[in-house]
Design goal:
With about 130 residues, the protein is an alpha+beta fold. About 15% of the residues lie in helices and about 40% in strands. The protein is built from two helices and seven strands.
Length: about 130
């Protein structure tokens, strides 16, 4: 008998958190002015393993490159009460367009390269945010 279970593939919990995120698309294969632009979006949740980012994608053709790891996203975000930004190189795990808002989408990003210090900042913030006041 086979039983189907819904399970979460994340290793870390995520905290609902809307903070500004600056991001840039990165690729070894692609060059051009579009690749030099720094964009601004907003996180919808953040965890030690990644984040959900509400963003604009300058070129719809980039979505397939993001989802096949031919393009990455470099992020820079400042957590509340943090003295410095958290920086990370992320890969896109999934994406979904936002109904009624043309050009915007949400993208699940997983940290591929993040320093231990930055990951600790995120983890400490999540732990403190869940503590009773």
């Amino acid at each position: 008998m086979t039983t189907s279970f819904d399970y979460e593939r994340r290793q870390f919990i995520r905290l609902p958190l809307a903070v500004p995120v600056r991001y840039k698309f990165l690729s070894r294969e692609m060059r051009g002015e579009d690749m030099e632009v720094v964009h601004e979006g907003v996180s919808q949740n953040v965890g030690a393993g990644g984040l959900l980012l509400r963003m604009r994608l300058p070129n719809p053709a980039w979505l397939s490159k993001l989802l096949t790891r031919k393009m990455y996203v470099g992020i820079n975000m400042i957590l509340p009460n943090a003295e410095r930004p958290v920086k990370a190189l992320c890969r896109a795990i999934w994406s979904s367009s936002i109904e009624g808002d043309t050009g915007q989408l949400v993208m699940g990003l997983e940290f591929q390269e993040v320093t231990n210090k930055d990951q600790d900042l995120i983890t400490q913030y999540i732990i403190k945010a869940q503590m009773p006041a």
